[in-house]
Amino acid sequence: MVEFKTFSNGFPYIEVTNSVSSAKIALQGAHIFEYKKDGKNELLWLSSLAQFEENKPIRGGIPICWPWFGPHSEPSLPQHGFARISLFSFISCDEKDDITSVVTLKLTDSPKSKILWDFSFELLVTISISKELYVSIKTTNTDIKEFKITEALHTYLNVENILDAEVFGVKKSTYFDQLSKTMKVQKNDLHIDQEIDRIYINPNNKLTLKEKNRTIFLQNSHSNSLVIWNPWREKVKSIKDMQDHEYKNMLCIESANVLDDSKIVQPDRSITLSLKLSSISY
């Protein structure tokens, strides 16, 4: 079942429920900001200070960074592209059975988007809500010229305590450390005890985040780069829509196409980036 709702300020979102799971998706950004399986704890982290306002990104959930990741070379353009602050059209919510709901949303070029990025496109977002959460973004070039994109599913995962969380699947991977601006190699499985901002190159597409009471499984498709980020106790103080203590309960593991993994899309061609999330609680 899908219900169309708004916050008190009129900001629109949809709530999807079936017999095994539920989710909330903002129409701005096609941004899933809540997902629960069997009514249990949130899989996705959402800041207590998250803003649900027009033209402002939401801190938490799964923001869609598109058609560029990070800052643009032109500083006046929005960080992480314009998709996450654009209003998507609702296309459908298909009930595959009583345990699976598939939501489809779409963004196309407009006079407003062409001021920021002068190309014609279609961005189709598919979100499957069941015992697993599946998200895909399909970029189609509807222009007469090729274009280049970088992109990410900027997934914020909810963790009980970041000091107890370990990431498996990046061992021996090469990564670009965005803090020191150097290339390094991950010697062991990843335990986080300080600020981290890394882009892993050709990592394992199947990752595991283990905690004391839960294991989260991530599977990426059509992605040869992976971003892992936590601002830690000092940098979090400069983030206005996040409380100082909240770094302890989140970790971003982002399916991406960035750096040398950027994509050139020819006219009338499409590319897809996708992520599947599942979990086991103990």
Structure overview:
This protein has a 9-stranded antiparallel sheet, with no helix packed on it. Strands 5, 11, 12, 14, 15, 17, 20 and 21 form an 8-stranded antiparallel sheet that branches. Strands 1-2-3-4 form a 4-stranded antiparallel sheet, with no helix packed on it. With 282 residues, the chain is mainly β. The chain has helices spanning 111-116, 232-235; strands at residues 2-6, 12-17, 21-26, 31-37, 64-65, 89-97, 100-108, 121-129, 133-141, 147-149, 151-153, 156-158, 166-168, 174-177, 182-185, 190-191, 196-201, 206-210, 214-221, 225-230, 250-257, 263-265, 270-281. The two termini are 29 Å apart. It has one domain (2-281): Distorted Sandwich (Beta-galactosidase, Chain A, domain 5). β18 and β19 form a beta hairpin.
Task: Describe what is shown at a glance.
The protein is mainly beta and 282 residues long. 4% of the residues lie in helices and 47% in strands.
Write the layout of secondary structure elements.
Elements: E1 2-6, E2 12-17, E3 21-26, E4 31-37, E5 64-65, E6 89-97, E7 100-108, H1 111-116, E8 121-129, E9 133-141, E10 147-149, E11 151-153, E12 156-158, E13 166-168, E14 174-177, E15 182-185, E16 190-191, E17 196-201, E18 206-210, E19 214-221, E20 225-230, H2 232-235, E21 250-257, E22 263-265, E23 270-281
Distance between the termini: 29 Å
Helix content percent band? under 10%
How many β-strand runs?
23
Going by helix content, strand content and strand pairing, the class is mainly beta
The CATH architecture category equals Distorted Sandwich
Q: Which fold name is given in CATH as the topology?
A: Beta-galactosidase, Chain A, domain 5
Question: Treating each run of at least 4 consecutive H or I residues as one helix, how many helices?
Answer: 2
Low-confidence stretches: none
